[in-house]
Write a structure and sequence with these properties.
By secondary structure, the protein is α+β, with helices and mostly antiparallel strands. About 50% of the residues lie in helices and about 20% in strands.
Length: about 500
């Protein structure tokens, strides 16, 4: 954005020389001044000036002293606010009479100073009626003293209530995500802790079994052969498909019979371990051929211990890998260590959101119908994930924890389309037109604030210049989000 370029012959508002002013008749065409008397309009005409600006220039910046009120006469304007170092577009309009600037100059401040609450820029060559904050304050306090008090009270009330409600919405959303993430992390963490404790016991038993083998006076060559058999068996097991519970049960029955024939004590427990590893009676025969009868019991228990140890290590690896994947999903979801705007693959955001909401999705089947050929698009990545969160969370609520959630991506001309569909009961026709209204919700009292879809629409339409549309019937609801494939984000 270039520097401001205001076309005025004098830099001082209200100067009588070389300043273009509006006539009383011209002022009367602005909706802000409807109902004012000719004398009042004349008062404004004498004090207001017209300023013109080139396109895409800054008129004023947030936190600068609020010296003027700006009223759009022609062209277009964009109002924005800085949120965590990022410019957020609040309003973009070409509506004649739109105003911004020293909005609250009429309030009696202790130090008599105010700053602009937002930044104002032009989107095309534009002209404004400019009135100094001092003149605006005089106008309001003299002509509308009661309105001053009412407006200030209304402003503070709305600001405070909206702040409380939005904070509650953010805390509620954070609570939902935290609860789901805690549940998802707790399961693999508990599994890893449990497996680690069992592994410690297994290592102790392995030392004991080695001692028993040593007392059996097995020579080094035989021990080497036993270790080789264990390694060969592990390699063979790695290529085998997982057995069904019925197949494991059949192996266990055969093992019990074979171990009983060999006079092995505690055959049931030993058979359970070997069958879980996918080993049967024929494998026992291989061991029997490799060792003497008096060491068969100890050899089998030593080998069973090694297989159980391997299984526990696999369980720990799986659990810790899942934790790592969950942490990775959280980073992708929040786009930590990344800039606010970047080229993103929407599928990554959709998948990480599903992971984060995994606990709430529960028994819901998630179907992915992705067009993987879609290009990356410029986006505010973390904000877009808030949209997926709202849509998927609402879909889960609509289905009551059971049903099919379909995530679909496609391309339509210059748009990337994301569809979030559920097979719930649908949105009633009389409710559908209001679902994007702030504070509107069909959930029970305390279960929702009505800001989720309003926030989603703001992010899609205002932040990404896209579109969001619900399509609903008694067979379910689909939200279609269209995002431009190429654009310059602000």
């Amino acid at each position: 954005m270039s520097e401001p370029s205001a076309d005025t012959t004098t830099a001082t508002a209200g100067s009588a020389t070389g300043v273009r002013r509006l006539s009383v008749d011209e002022l009367r065409t602005l909706f802000l001044f409807e109902g004012l008397t000719d004398d009042q309009l004349q008062w404004i005409a004498e004090r207001g000036e017209v300023r013109t600006y080139d396109g895409d220039v800054a008129v004023y910046s947030e936190a600068d002293p609020a010296d003027y009120l700006f009223i759009l006469l022609s062209g277009g304007l964009r109002m924005s606010r800085s949120v965590q170092g990022e410019d957020l577009t609040v309003v973009e309009t070409q509506y004649r009479g739109a105003y911004s600037g020293a909005m609250r100059a009429f309030v009696d401040a202790a130090d008599d100073t105010f700053t602009y609450a937002n930044s104002l820029a032009t989107t095309e060559p534009s002209s404004f009626l400019v009135l100094s904050s001092a003149h605006f304050a005089e106008l309001m306090r003299t002509w509308f003293p009661m309105a001053v008090h009412l407006l200030d009270g209304l402003y503070l009330g709305i600001r405070n209530s909206e702040s409380v409600v939005r904070q509650r919405e953010h805390l509620a959303r954070l609570g939902t995500l935290s609860a789901g993430l805690a549940h998802e992390l707790n399961n693999p963490a508990a599994a890893a802790v449990r497996a680690t404790g069992q592994l410690r016991d297994q290592v102790a038993r392995a030392r004991h079994k080695l001692k028993l083998l040593a007392y059996g006076k097995i020579d080094a060559e035989l021990i080497a052969g036993l270790v080789e058999l264990q390694e060969t068996t592990m390699l063979e097991m790695a290529d085998r498909p997982a057995l069904s519970p019925v197949e494991v049960s059949d192996l266990e029955d055969g093992l019990i019979d074979r171990l009983d024939e060999s006079g092995i004590s505690g055959a049931d427990d030993l058979a359970a371990v070997l069958a879980s590893a996918g080993l049967g009676a024929r494998w026992v025969d291989r061991v029997a051929d490799a060792v003497s009868p008096d060491t068969l019991d100890g050899s089998l228990r030593f080998l069973a211990n090694t297989f159980e140890t391997e299984a526990l290590m696999d369980e720990i690896t799986e659990a810790t890998t899942r934790i790592s994947n969950l942490v990775g999903a959280v980073k992708q979801y929040a786009y930590m260590d990344s800039s606010a705007t970047q080229e993103i693959d929407v599928h990554v955001g959709l998948d990480s959101t599903v992971v984060i909401l995994g606990h709430k999705l529960g028994a819901i089947e998630v179907r992915r119908e992705y067009d993987r050929s879609l290009p990356k698009i410029p986006a505010f990545a973390a904000e877009l994930n808030q949209v997926w969160t709202n849509l998927i969370d609402n879909a889960a609520d609509a289905m009551g924890g059971h049903g099919v959630l379909t995530l679909r991506t496609s391309r339509e001309d210059d748009w990337l389309v994301v569809e979030v569909a559920d097979d719930g009961p649908g949105i009633p026709a009389d409710v559908l037109p209001r679902i994007f209204d702030a504070f509107f919700t069909t959930k029970d009292v305390g279960a929702g604030t009505g800001l989720g879809l309003e926030n989603a629409k703001r992010i899609v339409c205002k932040r990404h210049r896209g579109e969001i549309e619900p399509v609903s019937s008694p067979e379910g609801t689909t939200f279609r989000v269209k995002l431009p494939l190429a654009q310059q984000l602000r």
